[in-house]
Amino acid sequence: MIEKEIINTPDFFEEAINCYTSKDNNFEILSNYEKFGMTQEEMQEYIRPVQEFCKQVNEQFSVVIEEFPKLKAFLKLTDTELQEGSILLIFYRNLLRIEQGIGKFTKEDLAFIHMLNKDQYSEAISDEKVYVKDVTELIQYLETQSLEDAYKMRLISLYMDRLVIKDQIMKLKKVAEDIVQKSYHLVKHIVEEELIRMKEPDYLDEILKDSIRIFMEQGKKFTLIPSICKYNSLGMEGVDNFYIFHVGIYVVNLVKRKNQNKFNDAQLIADLKAISDATRLRMLHMLSMKRMYIQEMAEELKLTPATVSHHINILLTMRYVLLTVDASKSKKVYYELNQEKLEGLSKSILNLTNKYY
């Protein structure tokens, strides 16, 4: 049986960081109201509490971050981070989970090293762990990886300043939590309502059945953490013997609404737009042959993993592909074609003749 743990409050430090880094592109959903069976006014009212929360937090955090220039530099996200998440937040999460160092590796060393063992850093599809003992080894390792140059430099900078960065994160954390706490009343009722729904046994089924397949050994555990700023997204981390889901407080309801209105014209236009790109169309052809990892697709397409992640996230959002996590074996994440989605799109196009002629 899979055990489910629910964290009752969002991580206020992460919320502050996300409000700051997402301020320019967090509410595109306001222009897509028809896909969710809403009027523009209904969508605006629906999103308003989160929008006001993010605005207030960002205004105050933008002042405070000026006192931490080293951290501020890390919060101007690279293209890879826009797809995979801020390395500052990943480093922060690892620091919270690692209790102490091991041998010659300090807690800060391990928090960084764990980042290098995420799927997007690994060229080889294997379970072998990557360890680096100094900056020279890190540079040598990164030279073998087809990562964005700006991202490589960011990893090197973080490694070289990891002790200072850790201390500054902990100082900023206290201030950021106070900032978020002051505005939390705007969304607290929404979070509490979602926490009640999270206890339902089929809470994530609507999302997982259409986008993510997870094959897990018995005894594995899910941890669910509510997310305010990332209100319409589902983030997933694999950590040892459990998976952590950062669940947007609106994401389950929005998916249900979208599924109930899947045959409207706005959805059809969005579906067709997603595959009008030549690269994404080629990716669908590739995935029709076999399931693939990000690195495999990047090599075949001669693109960076960050670029492939950008395209695959669009296809994943529109459910053209399925994300599969095999936690029982290699613990790798791979993608495969969602044939049901293509069949549904074909039917929608054919229905045009019945609807209008």
From TrEMBL:
Keywords: DNA-binding, Transcription, Transcription regulation. GO terms for molecular function: DNA binding; DNA-binding transcription factor activity. The keyword Zinc does not apply. Coiled coil: none annotated. Pfam families: HTH_5. The keyword Transcription regulation applies. InterPro entries: ArsR-like_HTH (IPR011991), HTH_ArsR_DNA-bd_dom (IPR001845), HTH_MetalResp_TranReg (IPR051081), WH-like_DNA-bd_sf (IPR036388), WH_DNA-bd_sf (IPR036390). Residues 260-357 form the HTH arsR-type domain. It comes from the Bacteria. PANTHER family: TRANSCRIPTIONAL REGULATOR, ARSR FAMILY (PTHR33154), TRANSCRIPTIONAL REPRESSOR SDPR (PTHR33154:SF33). This is Transcriptional regulator, ArsR family. The lineage of its organism: Bacteria, Bacillati, Bacillota, Clostridia, Lachnospirales.
